[in-house]
TrEMBL record:
GO terms for cellular component: endoplasmic reticulum; membrane. This is Long-chain-fatty-acid-CoA ligase. One of its GO terms (molecular function) is long-chain fatty acid-CoA ligase activity. Residues 41-460 form the AMP-dependent synthetase/ligase domain. It comes from the Eukaryota. Keywords: Fatty acid metabolism, Ligase, Lipid metabolism. Pfam families: AMP-binding, AMP-binding_C_3. SUPFAM superfamilies: Acetyl-CoA synthetase-like.
Length: 650
């Protein structure tokens, strides 16, 4: 099937029906023919109709969609969406945990000429309203009654909204009368629609028009609607597949929030282009349930955000602390071999003596216990990860490859690979893309900018922000600071977006300081540096607590913390007591002093700090859906404590 014409002279657009100039190169990876999402999907379905595409736990077993069944359901859902009144260039909002229905709704919206627009499950009704209204959603697909209630609460302020579809559980007959559909009923709506009703919409799709809206999670301000074109999606997915050498036999687990670009790229669009199998985790995945799915599925490719790796590390450290005697000695020895061996490999040297013994006795068993024994590629993306966590996994011979990018470049800009992996680097640029460090300082650090077919179309309806992000030459300004080494590997060294500028005019990058504090104080779960427009720097810290079923902190300290705090002479198991304990506070002061000792200038030293009675969490609003720190929200939530730091000093 031929795609529509892709001629446009514009680098960017903010119009829903806008088109952009595709940044095709004359040769190499950037020169491939542009494809729509539908074309890629159809090609895979024709190639592997009977192969497993999706697997989800239903009624005590795994329910499977083959690629053909998946395609048939997407076409049926697209017809139903047309019946419900989906207009071209209007959105279908999707609000729920990862499931086959999420994927089906996403692809159906796209092939019916609309936009797929994921809504974070953690959004409040108002935040859902923002996305639904801004994207002019005609239909919203929700997971369950809990999510449905959020939409019902704002429905009368959504003039474009025509129907709501719920994909798990039942819907009351009262609500059914008000255009709320159960999934099975929804799938039947388009049964009598002739194929050409969908076909003409498919034929009207153009690779240089918008397919998906990614609303940023708002860690730096209000969410922006990142317009991702068909070509952005299909080209980037194919490029990732090529460089990661993904094959149809690969298997992965879908569990990261699908409203985020990384999850959409890895879980929906990379499989669409390869024909690999996606298994769905249970909704409690990010609350600890993931490990069960990992052990059962044993994926061959696994992507985690930094917090997922940190949580795994915490669990394993807690287990390690209970190990004693010979077992402990062997584990400690193996870990030193693991780290040394992996660092040697990165520098082209041989692994040390004892490598295969350590592998047989320890590494392979740990991989098995984590469900990573078949995993060829385990990666981290979406936020900075500490060197400590990377080295911890290296010591277990689990190199966690870093991917760097953002929604505005459809996910990845650089990908570290086994061949190029250097701990602390995010790897080289994706082939076919350009990366430039703008105005580098004497050490080569400057703003990271990129260009290529992965760069988004613009922010829907927001010309000012789009002009800020994409310059006249088509360079996307990331707002991140980094440098590139002689081998072309990128190192992220700061984030302009979150740079603190003190009242004295000193620019302070908070992440390196926060990481140093965390490395010095292992029982600290989170910390945030404060000091924007202030006379000096201060810090809020949290102790690691047990979490409840919703992922909210409880009043009890975690086992790992208790292990450390007891050693410090604090016997309390309660957070409220521990944060006042003089021994703990003295240890924190020592950790802060050590971090201050490393500070490059007096203005970069932490002058005051306080422990918060609880931990940062998604329900608490301090962490975003990908577990990234939401700085503005933390500052406003703890304004009182912060004001006390500065009281009388300004
Ligand atoms: N590997 C990485 N190392 C360090 N930082 C990273 C890495 N990957 C992504 N980031 C950070 O995350 C940013 C991209 O965030 P993303 O596009 O996912 O937005 P978001 O979290 O949805 O929302 P917001 O724009 O509000 O932060 C990058 O600009 C960078 O600052």
């Amino acid at each position: 099937m031929a795609s529509g014409s892709t001629t446009s002279s514009k680098h960017w657009t903010v119009a829903a029906d806008g088109e952009v100039r595709l940044k095709q190169t004359l040769e190499g990876m950037g020169s491939t023919a542009p494809l729509t999402v539908f074309e890629v999907f159809k090609r895979t379905v024709d190639k592997y109709p009977k192969k497993d595409a999706l697997k989800v736990q239903r009624g005590g077993g795994w329910k499977t969609w083959t690629w053909h069944m998946y395609y048939a359901d997407v076409c049926a859902a697209a017809k139903s969406m047309i019946v419900l009144g989906l207009q071209p260039y209007h959105a279908v909002g999707i609000l729920g945990f990862n499931s086959p229905e999420w994927f089906i709704a996403d692809l159906a919206a796209i092939i019916a000429g609309g936009f797929a627009a994921g809504i974070y499950t953690t959004n409040s009704p108002e935040a859902c309203h923002y996305v639904a209204e801004h994207s002019r959603a005609n239909i919203i697909v929700v997971e369950d009654d809990r999510q449905l209630q959020k939409i019902l609460a704002v429905r009368d302020r959504l003039p474009n909204l025509k129907a709501i579809v719920q994909y798990t559980g039942t819907v009351s007959s009262d609500l059914k009368k008000k255009n709320v559909y159960e999934w099975a009923d929804f799938m039947q709506l388009g049964r009598d629609i002739p194929d050409f009703e969908v076909q003409w919409r498919i034929q009207a799709l153009k690779p240089n028009q918008c397919a998906t809206l990614i609303y940023t999670s708002g860690t730096t301000g209000n969410p922006k609607a990142v317009m991702i074109s068909h070509d952005n999606m299909t080209w980037t997915a194919q490029t990732c597949i090529n460089i990661l050498k993904v094959v149809p036999e690969d298997e992965l687990i879908s569990y990261l929030p699908l409203s985020h670009v990384a999850a959409q790229m890895i879980d929906i669009h990379a499989p669409l282009a390869t024909g690999l199998t996606v298994w769905f985790a249970q909704p409690d995945a990010l609350k600890g349930g993931l490990v069960n799915t990992l052990r059962e599925v044993r994926p061959t490719v696994f992507l985690g955000v930094p917090r997922v790796w940190e949580k795994m590390q915490e669990k394993m450290l807690a287990i390690g602390k209970q190990t004693t005697g010979l077992k402990k000695t062997i584990a400690t020895w193996a870990k030193s071999i693991g780290l040394e061996g992996n660092l040697s490999l990165q520098n082209g040297r041989d692994v040390p003596w004892g490598w295969s013994i350590a592998n047989g006795l320890v590494f392979s068993k740990i991989r098995e216990a984590l469900g990573l024994d078949r995993c060829r590629i385990q990666a981290t993306a979406a936020a900075p990860i500490t060197r400590e966590t990377l080295e911890y996994f290296l010591s277990l011979n689990i190199p966690v490859y870093e991917i760097y990018g953002m929604s505005e470049c459809s996910g990845p800009q650089t990908v570290s690979l086994p061949e190029t992996y250097r701990t602390g680097s995010c790897g080289p640029s994706v082939p076919g893309t350009e990366l430039r460090i703008m105005n580098p300082d004497k050490d080569g650090n400057g703003e990271i900018c990129f260009r290529g077919r992965h760069v988004f179309m613009g922010y829907l309806f927001d010309e000012a922000k789009t002009r800020e992000a994409i310059d006249d030459d088509g360079w996307l300004h990331s707002g991140d600071i980094g440098r590139v080494d002689s081998q072309g590997l990128l190192y992220i060294t700061g984030r302009l977006k979150e740079l603190l500028i003190t009242a004295g005019g000193e620019n302070v990058a908070p992440v390196p300081i926060e990481n140093t504090v965390k490395e010095n104080l292992p029982f600290i779960s989170n910390c945030i540096l404060i000091g924007d427009k202030r006379k000096f720097l201060t810090m809020l810290l949290t102790l690691r607590c047990e979490l409840d079923d919703e992922g909210a902190p409880t009043e009890r300290l975690s086992e790992l913390t208790l292990h450390d705090t007891r050693k410090l002479g604090c016997n309390s198991t309660l957070v409220a007591e521990a944060i006042l304990d003089p021994n703990i506070r003295a240890e924190i002061q020592r950790g802060i002093d050590r971090a201050n000792h490393k500070a490059v200038s007096a203005a970069q030293r932490i002058q005051k700090w306080e422990l918060i009675a609880g931990d940062f969490s998604i329900p608490g609003g301090e962490l975003g859906p990908t577990l990234k720190l939401k700085r503005p929200q933390v500052v406003s939530k703890y304004a009182e404590v912060i004001e006390r730091f500065y009281h009388g000093t300004e």
